[in-house]
Amino acid sequence: MSDKHNCNCGGCGGDCHDHDHDHDDFDTMTLTLEDGTEVECAIIGIFPVEEKEYIALIPVDEMDSEDAEIFLYGFEELEDGEIELIAIESDEEYEAVTKVFDELMEEEYDDEDDYDEEDDEEEEYEGEEE
To answer: 76 phi and psi, to 5 degrees?
Structure first.
């Protein structure tokens, strides 16, 4: 990889150099904030809540930060393949969306823990055979 960028991936400690990392596993899109700032974001999930689709985005340069800001928007894919983001207007809608998103992230985390436990059990079993 020859491009240098500030990925804050943890693998380079913020001092970027040539390296490969898992950020390429996510589709990205550029989000334009209300103040005109553009932020490159990874799409970390698209999920339904009460018959509407929502999308969760995280700034690429904050992916490894525990304090990363997650952006939640209504989501609609247009006929031409473009994505339209729709602001969540009401507190009630935002609460419902964050609740579902949090549950999905907990499930994802639990699945990863289950996978890690299976790996540990396999390693223990393999060690007993010797």
So the answer is: -145, 125
The reported pTM is 0.65
Taking residue 42's Cβ as centre, other Cβ atoms within 10 Å add up to 19
Residue 59, strand partner residues: 41
d(CA 30, CA 123): 42
Q: How far apart are the first and last CA of the chain?
A: 41
Alpha helix stretches (DSSP H) within the chain:
91-129
Cβ(41)–Cβ(55) under 8 Å?
no
What confidence tens digit (pLDDT) does each residue in 89-102 have? 999 999 999 999 99
pLDDT in tens, 22-33: 545 789 999 998
